[in-house]
């Protein structure tokens, strides 16, 4: 049986909202830009730590002499693994607890707690000369970064208007890459300093962003959706009025949409971890969010980011610090270009498939070129060029759209739990990469160097295939519209052309009352839907 719903047009309120452009939303976008600075900490750590492990001043304290290597120093595989991976492990732990944490702490309070934890961890790392103390500092810093990455994303997803959500998540990725660029540039200049100051000066940068965030958060409101979820309706209305330039009628309409979405989900009473998997709709949304974020790790980016400088140095490819600066600078440029087009184009599926295939090809060619002629100057030049191509694909197409998709897809009731779990598994994938990469690239172990790319090419291809067949396209959709589409149980390929009619409209179109819409009903669509 086929039901056809035709002549579905956007409601008048939607048309009125479209009259408000980016200038009208400046307060909301400014607040979200502030919160999007959180991943600067994550980026600067990756930028710094890769350089520190190639820095003589650092290696004198935590490494050993190796006269046969270009720098004369090296660090053991085990220490290299733990220094890089403990931060990611900490992020995995804290993002895993995002759901329970969100039941009693708002988005702002969580970011404040992360800022404090970040400062404490950095004090430990700067004052210790013990490897155990360094490990402890790295783990605590990871706990802070996990909170930063998870709760800043939640705030942005919940506060930004649908058409600007891609832009703000893109700025999230810009700050990650800017952090990496700043860390790498500072490493480049301080690497020439003799003694501990060569790595203490870069570590001092970690104090800056927590101070900026802690002060800036005093001037912006809490997430309206979090307030609504906790029964603070008037506070949510006040917060939404701050975020939106709309008249009261439009504010009330958005509050009503949020309330209806929450009420339809509140039939499940309290929220529990297993709710993410208990019914088919939430299970699908959970799996999609996890896979969307995890494709960042599946692209092989973590070893290139975390070990870039060390990788270039051990492979004897040009000037390692300068090469890393060029690589990350190109990455920042790619994200800026992406930010300029994400609002107008920004198709998640197209960018992710294209980016993953480009990353896979760059990794494959890097491995082949190095295997054929590992020590030639032309090989080094080719590898740097392919690394630039790789980072253009990753930063410009994969990273931004993976984060956007992972944050858009969870249900409102389970958003903190689902996105926390997805982020945690993404961090676990990153941890696994940073933990195992030294076995492949360190001369003390397998000494594969650039041949490590052979592992990541099939991973990129499999990820691209998953995106093509399973990831829905939800560009420019409100979170409430996304709820409606999942409740309709549409296949991924039908999301893009689906016409949302709202919960009340769905009930009317199907000749039932509004209360029946949470059963996974037939819904308005612009083409035949087979029952």
From TrEMBL:
UniProt entry keywords in alphabetical sequence: Membrane, Transmembrane, Transmembrane helix
GO cellular component, one term: membrane
InterPro entries: MFS_dom (IPR020846), MFS_sugar_transport-like (IPR005828), MFS_Sugar_Transporters (IPR050360), MFS_trans_sf (IPR036259), Sugar_transporter_CS (IPR005829)
Record GO terms (molecular function): carbohydrate:proton symporter activity
Membrane topology label: Multi-pass membrane protein
Start and end residues of each Major facilitator superfamily (MFS) profile domain: 31-475
Transmembrane region(s): 82-104, 167-186, 198-220, 286-306, 326-343, 350-370, 382-404, 416-441, 453-471
Keyword Signal assigned: no
Cellular compartments annotated: Membrane
PROSITE patterns xref list: MFS, SUGAR_TRANSPORT_2
Pfam families, sorted: Sugar_tr
Family: Belongs to the major facilitator superfamily. Sugar transporter (TC 2.A.1.1) family.
Name by which UniProt lists this protein: General substrate transporter
């Amino acid at each position: 049986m086929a039901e056809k719903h035709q002549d579905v047009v956007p409601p008048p309120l939607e048309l009125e909202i479209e009259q408000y452009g980016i200038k009208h939303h400046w307060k909301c976008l400014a607040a979200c830009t502030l919160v999007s600075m959180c991943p600067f900490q994550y980026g600067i750590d990756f930028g710094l730590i890769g350089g520190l492990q190639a820095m003589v001043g650092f290696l004198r304290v935590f490494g050993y002499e190796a006269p046969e290597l270009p720098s004369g120093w090296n660090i053991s595989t085990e220490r290299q693994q733990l220094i890089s991976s403990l931060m990611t492990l900490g992020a995995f732990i804290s993002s895993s607890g995002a759901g329970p944490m969100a039941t009693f702490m708002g988005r702002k309070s969580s970011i404040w707690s992360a800022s404090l934890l970040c400062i404490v961890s950095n004090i430990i790392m700067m004052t210790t000369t013990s490897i155990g103390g360094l490990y402890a500092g790295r783990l605590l810093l990871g706990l802070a970064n996990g909170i930063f990455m998870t709760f800043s994303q939640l705030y942005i997803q919940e506060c930004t208007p649908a058409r600007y959500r891609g832009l703000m998540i893109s700025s999230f990725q810009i700050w990650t890459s800017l952090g990496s660029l700043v860390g790498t540039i500072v490493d480049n200049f301080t690497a020439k300093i003799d003694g501990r100051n060569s790595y203490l000066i870069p570590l001092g940068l970690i104090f800056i962003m927590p101070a900026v965030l802690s002060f800036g958060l005093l001037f912006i409101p809490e997430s309206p959706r979090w307030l609504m979820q906790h029964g603070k309706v008037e506070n949510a209305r006040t917060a939404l009025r701050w975020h939106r330039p709309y008249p009261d009628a439009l504010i009330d309409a958005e509050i009503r949409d949020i309330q209806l979405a929450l009420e339809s989900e509140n039939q499940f009473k309290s929220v529990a971890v297993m709710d993410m998997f208990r019914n088919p709709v939430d299970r699908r949304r959970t799996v999609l969010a996890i896979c969307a974020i995890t494709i960042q790790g599946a692209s092989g980016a973590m070893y290139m980011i975390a070990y870039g400088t060390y990788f270039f140095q051990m492979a004897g490819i040009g000037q390692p610090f300068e090469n890393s600066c060029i690589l990350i600078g190109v990455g920042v440029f790619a994200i800026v270009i992406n930010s300029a087009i994400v609002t107008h184009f920004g198709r998640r599926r197209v960018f992710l498939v294209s980016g993953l295939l480009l990353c896979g090809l760059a990794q494959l060619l890097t491995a082949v070129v190095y295997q054929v002629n590992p020590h030639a100057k032309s090989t080094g030049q080719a590898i740097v060029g392919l690394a630039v191509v790789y980072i253009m694909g990753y930063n410009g197409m994969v990273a931004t759209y993976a984060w956007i998709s992972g944050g858009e897809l969870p249900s409102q009731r389970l958003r903190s739990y689902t996105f926390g779990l997805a982020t945690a598994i993404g961090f676990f994938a990153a941890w696994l990469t940073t933990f195992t990469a030294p076995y492949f690239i360190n001369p003390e172990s397998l000494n594969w160097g650039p041949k490590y790319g052979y592992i990541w090419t099939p991973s990129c291809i499999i990820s691209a295939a998953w995106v093509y067949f399973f990831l829905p396209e939800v560009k420019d959709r409100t979170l409430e519209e996304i709820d409606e589409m999942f409740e309709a149980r549409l296949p991924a390929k039908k999301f893009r052309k689906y016409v949302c009619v709202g919960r009340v409209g769905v009930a009317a179109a199907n000749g039932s009352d509004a209360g029946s819409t949470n059963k996974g009903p037939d819904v308005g669509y612009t083409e035949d839907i087979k029952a």
